[in-house]
Amino acid sequence: MLDKKLAGRIAVITGGSSGIGLATAKRFVEEGAHVVITGRREKELEEAAAFINRSVTTVAGDVSRLEI
């Protein structure tokens, strides 16, 4: 069982729908944080949120493009 080091914290993770970003988001939730994951593809974000299963909010967008 993991220590809840991040209880009550909020983390924003860019590129959170796959790879290292998704693994980080999952681990942060396991340690008690609420995570906000961002990514460009809505479908993949929804799948990532279902995989994490709790304490997650998704925001679709491209952080490299300020006008969007």
List the helices and strands and how they pair.
Layout: E1 10-14, H1 19-30, E2 34-39, H2 42-52, E3 56-60
Parallel strand pairs: 1-2, 2-3
What does this protein look like?
This protein has a 3-stranded parallel sheet, with helices on one face. 34% of the residues lie in helices and 24% in strands. The longest helix is centred in the middle third of the chain and has 12 residues, at 19-30. The protein has 68 residues and is of the alpha/beta class.
What distance lies between the first and last C-alpha atoms, to the nearest angstrom? 40 Å
User: What is the β-strand count?
Assistant: 3
Discrete helix count: 2
CA gyration radius, whole angstroms? 12 Å
Q: What integer is the average pLDDT?
A: 93
Structure, briefly:
The protein is an alpha/beta fold. Helix content is 34%, strand content 24%.
